[in-house]
Every structure is written in structure tokens, then in C-alpha cells.
Design goal:
Layout (H helix, E strand, L loop, with lengths): L2 E5 L2 E4 L4 E8 L7 E7 L6 E6 L5 E3 L7 E6 L4 E6 L8 E8 L10 E2 L3 E6 L1
Parallel strand pairs: 2-11
Antiparallel strand pairs: 1-3, 3-8, 4-5, 4-9, 5-6, 7-8, 9-10, 9-11
Length: 120
């Protein structure tokens, strides 16, 4: 059973940067695609970024150019580097693992989430 644990969230000001981490255990992480999603209060969970096993990367239009997803299979960890944060980026951020990257939240494995709050 693959387990995912997110970390790195916090309270920052607009324009600041944060790096989220998604650490995996239980199975061979390199065999999975990983997606980052976020969910703000009262809104649906939305796709943020994804990275395939082949390292191909995808981004939502709202974060393109500001966020970077990467993976270090030797550490069983996927990262989401976030720059130029905006108040609209405030949400609980989740990582999820699946066979391929898809933009809907239909992933097999999920972490518990980490809160990111961006103040104006």
C-alpha cells in the first residue's frame, strides 16, 4: 500500500515562495505518476501540476510559469516549488499517485494534505 505524506505548507505573504514535499512509502514510488491538487473552502478539488514516471510534466494554466513540479526517486519524494504566490493560491494542497497523470481527482492514492495560506 502506497502512503503519501505532504509537508511544507504554511502562511506566507503574496509574492513569497514555498516548496511542498510529497514523501512516499510502501511501494516503488518511481512506478507512479504523481499529481498535486488543491482545494479551497467551498470549491472543488482542482488539478495543479502532475509529473509522469517519464518526467513529463503538466501544469494548470493558473500556475504555469510560477510553479514547478519535480521528483527525486532516490528520496521517494515529489516536490512542488511555488513562486510568486497569490492569495488565490490559498488552499489545502494534496499529492496523489496514479498510473498516469490525469487532471481529475480520480487517483488511487492520496496524502492528507498541507495548508497553504497566502495573505495579501
Amino acid at each position: 500500500q502506497l502512503q503519501l505524506i505532504e509537508s511544507g505548507g504554511g502562511l506566507v505573504q503574496a509574492g513569497d515562495s514555498l516548496r511542498l514535499s510529497c514523501a512516499a512509502s510502501g511501494l516503488t514510488f518511481s512506478s507512479y505518476a504523481v499529481g498535486w491538487f488543491r482545494q479551497a473552502p467551498g470549491k472543488e478539488r482542482e488539478f495543479v501540476a502532475g509529473i509522469e514516471r517519464t518526467d513529463i510534466r503538466y501544469y494548470a494554466d493558473s500556475v504555469q510559469g510560477r510553479f514547478t513540479i519535480s521528483r527525486d526517486n532516490s528520496k521517494n519524494t515529489v516536490y512542488l516549488q511555488m513562486h510568486s504566490l497569490k492569495p488565490d493560491d490559498t488552499a489545502v494542497y494534496y499529492c496523489a499517485a496514479n498510473w498516469i497523470v490525469i487532471r481529475t481527482p480520480d487517483y488511487n492514492y492520496w496524502g492528507q494534505g498541507t495548508q497553504v495560506t497566502v495573505s495579501a
